[in-house]
Amino acid sequence: MAGVLLDDRAQDVRVVDEAEGPRYALYVDAEQAGVMVYRIVGRRRVLGHTEIDEGYCGLGLSRVLIRAVLNDLQQRKEKVTIYCPAIDRFIKQSRQVRRGHRHGSPGNLERAHSGWSRDLTLA
């Protein structure tokens, strides 16, 4: 079952947790415009690749998707590991999160495209 994380009817943008994916999906005008894949490893959410479809690039939608996901995980006080450079850039530019002290790799993502990861505790 999908959980709606963001429903901005003024801009016709929705972010939905499609747990059966497992992924978060971003919709614009009811069309899928982007995704963020994840896995659950123990009590930790492992965020992988974030992608915005070519026709929607340059509109700031990756920030909308990332912000909605991090806000949801922050409200639920989830521990998070990221493998996505776009999420890392967002976090570095945001005062929204408190960085964790552990760095590691609690879950291997097939789509991880870098040799680093960052563990976070969302404040």
UniProtKB/TrEMBL annotation:
**Domain named N-acetyltransferase: residues:** 16-102
Q: Which Gene3D superfamilies match?
A: 3.40.630.30
Q: Which PROSITE patterns match?
A: GNAT_YJDJ
Cross-referenced InterPro entries: Acyl_CoA_acyltransferase, GNAT_YJDJ
Name the segments for region: Disordered: 95-123
Q: Where is the composition biased (Basic residues)?
A: 95-104
Q: What is this protein called?
A: N-acetyltransferase
Lineage of the organism: Bacteria, Bacillati, Actinomycetota, Actinomycetes, Kitasatosporales
